[in-house]
From TrEMBL:
Compartments reported by the entry: Cell membrane
Protein species of origin: Microbulbifer okhotskensis
Protein name listed in UniProt: ABC transporter permease
UniProt keyword annotation of Cell division present: no
One GO CC term on file: plasma membrane
GO molecular function terms listed in the Swiss-Prot or TrEMBL record: transmembrane transporter activity
Occurrences of domain ABC3 transporter permease C-terminal (ranges): 283-395
Transmembrane segments: 20-39, 280-304, 324-351, 363-384
InterPro entries: ABC3_permease_C, MacB_PCD, Macrolide_Exporter_MacB
Domain MacB-like periplasmic core intervals: 26-245
Highest taxon of source: Bacteria
Record key words, sorted: Cell membrane, Membrane, Transmembrane, Transmembrane helix
């Protein structure tokens, strides 16, 4: 307490430089705390379970060359061939590849001819093997049967009678209720689609979509010029199967163009921007911390050089090295505390604006407190070496002329 008055007096004499460091710390805290919540939100997003055995799945797209290509017959023959390949657990046909950032979506309702209050959902047209191929977990109801598959031409709208939905989508449609047997309407009319099964999880096509996880599956296959197959292999056998399947399909029917990609590539591409953001923001936070540390080191060394004679006098009067080091660390703590107080208020104000205008995650008190503690530790660590240097000033300095 005896050191506080001369400490405040010294800070007041150097108020411009002290205020500059405090504002630098405040700005650093405001930026880093908001960076932390954004990075945390992106990491949680990247680490969300997909509900799919991503590492074991191959996605294959083929486009038929002849205009009058028999797509229905080709799909049946191809799937029979694929399922018979060594190390293949199952294969399915689908209109879109999951997690690929490309898909189909619509608005679905719980009442016929309803125009408002619907729920947006990604949807897939597929067959009964879709669940096993992707490794989805059926938690209620049953799967499709082969007899329920609707084959149609591109311009036709088949009367689909049944659907599977994700648990998340079912809860939004029928909160707190058993969805099995409940109707689903696609907005095009009064035709009810019965929910016959619920899968635990499936993120869908767009990982960044606000409705990711709302997914419906319909037993429908269209006779278009191109389609997609998903092939699930035994663990560790994906690359081996990948080499064989294109050759086998080309031998069976050379009148098409075949492209393959492993599903993990789609996932990596889908999260590429999130991963880049995490890396860039982490680098920015590290650079800000480094810059503010350099500022504190420079300012503390400048003050020590200015007060070298005073420090020598204190040493001559009996002050220990610990007393001198503690003095400068406490002085630095006062500056840091002021900066942290200003920065905490600024961080919350900036975050409220970001939440309102850019839908960013909300900054809570816990991450703010952790960031404030980290900024304080960086400040003390930066001041430690100059403080030790000040403690080593000899008492003889007091007898030297200025």
């Amino acid at each position: 307490m005896l050191e506080l008055k001369p400490m405040l007096s010294a800070l007041w004499r150097n108020k411009a430089s002290a205020l500059l460091i405090a504002l630098q710390l405040a700005l650093t805290l405001a930026i880093i705390s908001n960076i932390v919540v954004i990075v945390q939100d992106r990491i949680e997003k990247i680490e969300r379970p997909t509900g799919i055995t991503v590492e074991d799945i191959i996605a294959l797209n083929f486009m038929a060359i002849p205009q009058n290509y028999d797509m229905t017959g080709a799909i049946a023959a191809d799937l029979e061939l694929l399922r018979a390949l060594p190390y293949v657990k199952d294969a399915t046909v689908t209109n879109q590849v999951p997690l690929s950032q490309s898909g189909s979506a619509g608005t679905f309702y719980t009442q016929p001819n309803q125009e408002i209050g619907g729920e947006n959902s990604n949807y897939y047209n597929t067959d009964p093997h879709f669940i096993d191929t992707l490794g989805l977990n059926l938690v209620a109801g049953r799967n499709f049967t082969d007899a329920e598959i609707q084959f149609s031409d591109p311009n036709e709208s088949p009367e689909i009678a049944v659907a599977l939905v994700t648990q998340q989508f079912a809860e939004k449609l029928y909160p707190g209720q058993d969805p099995i047997g409940k109707p689903l309407f696609d907005g095009s009319g009064s035709n009810p689609i019965e929910i016959i099964g619920v899968v635990e999880r499936h993120l869908g096509a767009w990982v960044g979509w606000s409705n990711a996880g709302n997914v419906a599956f319909f037993p429908s296959i269209k006779n278009t010029q191109d389609t997609n197959y998903l092939i699930r292999t035994e663990p560790g056998k994906r690359d081996q199967v990948l080499k064989a399947l294109v050759q086998k399909l080309s031998e069976r029917d050379p009148q098409r163009v075949i492209k393959t990609k492993v599903l993990s590539e789609y996932v990596a591409r889908s999260y590429a921007r999130d991963n880049l953001m995490v890396k860039v923001l982490s680098i920015v936070a590290a650079m800000l911390s480094f810059i503010v540390a350099l500022g504190i080191v420079g300012l503390t060394i400048f003050w020590i050089n200015q007060r070298a004679k005073q420090i020598g006098v204190r040493r001559a009067l009996g002050a220990t090295r610990t007393n001198i080091s503690r003095y400068f660390l406490l002085e630095n703590s006062l500056i840091a505390g002021t900066g942290i107080a200003i920065g905490s208020a600024a961080a919350l104000i900036v975050n409220q604006s970001m939440v309102r205008d850019y839908s960013q995650p909300e900054l809570t008190l816990m991450p703010l407190a952790i960031c404030a503690l980290l900024v304080l530790l960086v400040s003390l660590a930066a001041a430690l070496t100059p403080a030790i240097r000040a403690a080593n000033i000899s008492p003889a300095t007091a007898t030297r002329s200025v």
